[in-house]
Amino acid sequence: MSIRNLEYLFKPKAIAVIGASPVPNSVGGVVAHNLFTAGFSGPIMPVNPRHQAVEGVLAYPDIASLPVAPDLGVICTPPETVPALIAELAARGARAAVVITSGLGVAASPRMVQNLRQEMLLAARPTLLRIVGPNCLGVIAPGAGVNASFAHTSTKPGWLAFVAQSGAIVTSVLGWAKRHGIGFSHLVSLGDMADVDLGDTLDYLASDPGTRAILMYIEVVSQARKFMSAARAAARSKPVIVVKAGRHVEGARAVASHTGALAGSEDVYDTMFRRAGILRVLGLEELFDAVEILGMTRVPAGDRLAILTNSGGIGALATDALIDEGGSLASLTQESILRLDQKLPPNWSHTNPVGIVADANGDRYAEAMGILLEDSNVDAILVLNCPNPLISSHDAARAVIAATAKKQDTTVLASWLGDGEVLEARRLFAENHIPFYGSPGQAVRAFMYLVNYRRNQQMLMETPPSVPENFTTDPSRARAVVAAALAEGREWLTEPEAKEILAAFSIPVVATRVAHTPEEAASIAADIGGSVAIKIISPNIPHKREVGGIALDVKGPAAAREAVIAITDQVGRLLPKARVDGFSVQPMVRRPGAYELIIGVLDDEQFGPVILFGHGGTAVEVLGDRALGLPPLNMQLAQDIMSRTRIYKLLQGYRGLPGARLDAIALTLIKVSQLVIDIAEVCELDINPLLADEYGVVALDARIKVRAAAGVATDRLAIRPYPKELEERIPLPDGRELLLRPVVPEDEPSFQQTFAKLTPEEIRLRFFVPMKTLSHMAAARFTQIDYDREMILILTEPGIPGRPEIFGLVSIA
User: Fold this and answer.
1) Which of 26, 389, 562, 801 is 20 to 30 A from residue 87's alpha carbon, by CA?
2) CB of 272 within 8 A of CB of 351?
3) Angle, helices 362-373/334-343, rounded to nearest 10 degrees
4) Closest C-alpha to 426, from 443, 445, 408
5) Which residues of 761-791 are buried (b: 16+ CB within 10 A; e: fewer)?
């Protein structure tokens, strides 16, 4: 829905507890005790006709008899009573409710058409009363003195918010946080999310000034576009860190395509979190480690880490951990190497990790730190210390702190091993806001939290248009092919049909003709000349090679005729009931040194179309080298997907072999993105192999699965693309024509130009603060928007390349 009325949930002025009880260890008793002992300053009114008082406070027989209208109602009664109680709360003026009760997913009697959950929502709808739950632990807002939960312990106020779909996880976090002295601004157990869900809660917490970071425990995301929109908005303003349960799902999904087999649901969640700007961690302890380092130190400008150590062994362990985590070891400049040579003993490591020998004292640490802090190739420094009875670890810590204080634009982390002086070193580093860790592995993992957070924030700033660039499309041509297949009751297109759709989106394909008899195949082979490839066309054979349905390098008409006969016999023996619709005949493509890639699409149940890229060929599933992305894509997003695969390094060329045209591969990803944006019926797609070399790309084979679709194609996307339908051409009296259209990221230079023309008074009236320049971050707020939650329209000239002049703009929230 929205954040409407959520202020009454987290900052109520009066609370009613329905089902409050004086019975110890009952749900109603624990909830009432928590509320009365949390420090709430307003009235708390127990409602229970069977008890005269609860927690020493007069109880009321029903909601109607309450002396004050409650903002918030907390319900701890049997499930069949909940819908009527919600109606009574709404009638009494309440605007929010926490339904602790479970069991609302089933009908109260066989005669009931609606289940209890639906009845509850219908009762709340007329007054827009907001509901957390049912089946939840409750809500805690320590700063407001609200503990509307049956948690076993309380918490102190803080600047972290924790949101979870599991009440048990909330209680675990409460216990952990209490032991570590951590406080919270909010703890929210969402339960079954009948009304208030992850997206609503994110929207509220993103605008809450008392919340500096949002932590989440997620089991499943519902309403993907709503969640993505809220997550991207929240992540722009403060760190959002998530633990996703169920990373290993037992049992494979039955899919026919390579893409379906490669793209597991957890990979899709990883992709979604990355695109939303959210940092994902693996467990609850890592959750707090991540928020600690994000709150304590600056995010580095890059991922190049220098390691400074007095022990080669722990330096090697840290390097291994860094490589395992996907990090980069900084290559020191030659100037730094020469300066270190002058300051360090002759037997120092002469490389990164910078080993300064076991007897390194504070002065040596200080000299090395000063040089590394000035190295332009270093984004962050991890300082390690292994105890030495002859040298003071305490002095080394002081030296690192003093050097860091002189130049604070480089991220510094520390890890001191051993006991005794380590406690004092930890205290010193904490006082000076330098993250400290007990092992090199923990320190490296924390550094990678920073790196991944920065990468996700950069991706968050990408809101690509759905308008094709550098290529033309013919969606009507593709829709005609799809419509014909659906009319015949087919879900899998033939290879020629699939290639026809790819060609409609300017994806290079090998020319393919269809033969229905051995003689036709011979005739086509004669027309083509040279060697041909022949493949069986059958809706019952998803993988042709596995049944001998492919013949390659067939030379001449006679050989083509024999190949068709051989394929027919082979398939007939293995799959006698398979329907054979013909044979595709295409010229053999010989591109020595070309790379075999796969580009695919899978329609995820929750997040809609997901695009896959990776190492293709017959062993695609064995290699498992792939990365995913969410449409819409632009060149930067497409290149990011490519860079997350192992084959990406090969594509850049190696050992004298030329690299592939990376821009052509990225553009093909964008074309596939456009295909799923325009054609709602495409639910699965494989281009395998896509040959790529220094000359470009070509699709040798393709498979597409279709199904009937209702609604607009873009409705199924987790991120709304550029709404081209809002464009409007406006004729002027002088014959010119202007274009009213939604803003796109590429408009940022135009915004900068327009701002430069404003007078100081105009700037004050528009921005309410004096500004000399419009920073990149400020301009991005206008140009890189989420089209699903806001709209900025600009008036400009149509078809003007580069930096069109902006004549006016309007923002619609």
Assistant:
1) 26
2) no
3) 160
4) 443
5) eebeeeeeeeeeebeeeebbebbbbbbbeeb
The three-state DSSP-derived secondary structure of 623-663 is HCCEEEECCCCCHHHHHHHHHCCCHHHHHCCECCECCCCHH
Q: Report the SS3 class of residue 461.
A: coil
CB of 469 closer than 8 Å to CB of 450: no
Across the beta sheet with 44-47, what order do the strands follow? 44-47, 15-18, 72-75, 96-99, 130-132
How far apart are the C-alpha atoms of 413 and 380, rounded to whole Å? 8
pLDDT of residue 170: 92
3-17, 279-293, 478-492, 726-740: least confidently modelled range: 279-293
Question: How confident is the model at residue 261, as a pLDDT?
Answer: 47
What is the pLDDT at residue 440?
92
Distance between CA atoms of residues 164 and 284, nearest Å: 11
Q: What is the mean pLDDT of residues 122-133?
A: 95
d(CA 437, CA 286): 13
Q: How far is residue 425's CA from residue 464's CA, in Å, rounded to a whole number?
A: 47
Give the pLDDT score at 420: 66
CB 501 within 8 Å of CB 485: no
Is residue 473 packed enough to be buried (19+ CB in 10 Å), middle (13-18) or exposed (0-12)?
middle
Q: Among residues 59, 453, 98, which one has the least CA distance to residue 293?
A: 453
Angle, alpha carbons 468-469-471 (nearest 5°): 85
CA dist 637 and 660 (Å) reads: 18
pLDDT tier for residue 307 given thresholds of 50, 70 and 90: very high
Look at 424 and 349; give whichever has higher pLDDT.
349
User: What is the rounded CA–CA span in Å between residue 746 and residue 237?
Assistant: 22
User: What's the distance, Cα to Cα, between the start and end of the chain in Å?
Assistant: 15
Ramachandran assignment for 399, one of left (phi > 0), alpha (psi -120 to 50 degrees), beta (any other): alpha
This model's pTM is above 0.70: yes
Residue 584 β-bridge partners: 514, 535
Token reading at 142 = 């320590």
Mean pLDDT of 772-783: 72
Check: CB of residue 304 under 8 Å from CB of residue 380.
Answer: yes
DSSP letter for 493, please. P
What pLDDT score does 109 carry?
A: 52
The pairing of strands 728-731 and 737-742 is antiparallel
d(CA 235, CA 223) in angstroms, rounded, equals 18
Residue from 446, 450, 455 nearest 276 by CA: 455
pLDDT band at 760 (very low <50, low <70, confident <90, very high): confident
Could you tell me the CA-to-CA distances from 618 to 511, 601, 623 in Å, in that order?
21, 18, 10
Q: How far apart are CA 773 and CA 755, in angstroms?
A: 7
Residue 58 pLDDT > 80: yes
Whether a cis peptide bond, with omega within 30° of 0, leads into 134 is yes
Tokens in use for 761?
A: 């008074």
What is the three-state SS of 526-590? HHHCCEEEEEEECCCCCCHHHHCCEEEEEECHHHHHHHHHHHHHHHHHHCCCCCCCEEEEEECCC
pLDDT band with cut points at 50, 70 and 90 for residue 254? very low
By three-state DSSP, how is residue 59 classified?
A: coil
Provide the strand spans (E) within 621-775. 626-629, 682-693, 696-699, 702-706, 728-731, 737-742
How far apart are alpha carbons 226 and 200 in whole angstroms?
A: 9
Q: pLDDT at residue 651 above 90?
A: yes
Residue-level length of the chain? 813
Confidence grade of residue 806 (pLDDT, cut at 50, 70, 90): confident
* pLDDT at residue number 32: 96
